[in-house]
């Protein structure tokens, strides 16, 4: 294995190690799962680097980045719908607010944006992590504004409010040039840690770290970013798993199952709903930030309801509502189906042309049809998703989660 291949396999080791470690049975100790995960992850990463052609490998890494971003957003939706039963169909609003917030905070001078308020308040050139935090905060504030007056009413009011806020946010970013360049793309969004593969601007990096990345070229940056997105997926998953297995998580389920009973037991149902709605929106905002730094250039069209709301709902329904592992799995499976249908339409083009000369030009509509068929099959044959919700009590003897009979 070359030096470049060795570095790439190591960058892929951490996310693959997490998957390998989670695949081991729970009877193994934490140390055994950690060692086994690291070893298995490195072996899988090395095999991919050696056996998969470089062009296909680059595609798979890019696929993993987008899948990880969708996984973060699906985890946020799982907090709202899967655990609390909040019907949010305005995911695009929080996704877009997170993306544009980090773009405006981390750029030094937004390209092409009209002079005035935006350059005075934004254009801070803040670090990546500050932009991500600002994105989550902005999405959370939006959730408070939307959820505060609506969550005390019937559930359908939240659906109406989220539809309205999603369309309002889209129109604001589309028409207000002073804010985010209006209909033109907002360019120049910095890529985190890109200096590691460009030999410039990473004076802060220790010499061993700089030497490790020195073999990579700028075109290999996606291997760095896939590690960044994987860390966010792993971090969000671990935090949510701890939260869901806490008294707060059990309260969310109680509100979802029977909020009247929870209220009679002295629980502030409206407050609990607002907490869950805000936490989910913060996670969606973080996903938007990861998307913006990957795309480098964004505009309002990136947050079409199809890509930023409908697909994410299908991901959660397929993976398993009320299960964080299912949310992550569903994100990758549906993104694989969506990207795979593009190749399928190309393969079917001669047959489609034989049926009707105009049919090959309707490839995008055929992709929508395939996704609709997948959703129908989910509802018919796997209504609980690929990984159903875990039903468990908190902790019994031995400190292990025990399933309910």
Write the layout of secondary structure elements.
Elements: H1 3-23, H2 30-51, H3 54-82, H4 91-106, H5 117-121, H6 128-150, H7 155-175, H8 177-180, H9 207-213, H10 221-244, H11 247-257, H12 259-264, H13 269-295, H14 305-319, H15 324-355, H16 363-381
Structure description:
The chain is mostly helical. The protein folds into two domains: 1-51, no CATH class; 60-306, ABC transporter involved in vitamin B12 uptake, BtuC (Orthogonal Bundle), CATH 1.10.3470. The chain is 70% helix and 0% strand. It has 16 helices and no strands. It has helices at 3-23, 30-51, 54-82, 91-106, 117-121, 128-150, 155-175, 177-180, 207-213, 221-244, 247-257, 259-264, 269-295, 305-319, 324-355, 363-381.
CATH level 3 topology of the largest domain: ABC transporter involved in vitamin B12 uptake, BtuC
| Morphology call | globular
> Into which percentage range does the β-strand content fall?
under 5%
What is the first-to-last residue Cα distance? 51 Å
The total tally of domains equals 2
Tally of contiguous helical segments? 16
Largest sheet: none
- Mind telling me the C-alpha Rg? 22 Å
> How would you classify the helix and strand content by structural class?
mainly alpha
Query: Average pLDDT, to the nearest integer?
Result: 84
Number of strands: 0
Q: Return the string of H and E elements.
A: HHHHHHHHHHHHHHHH
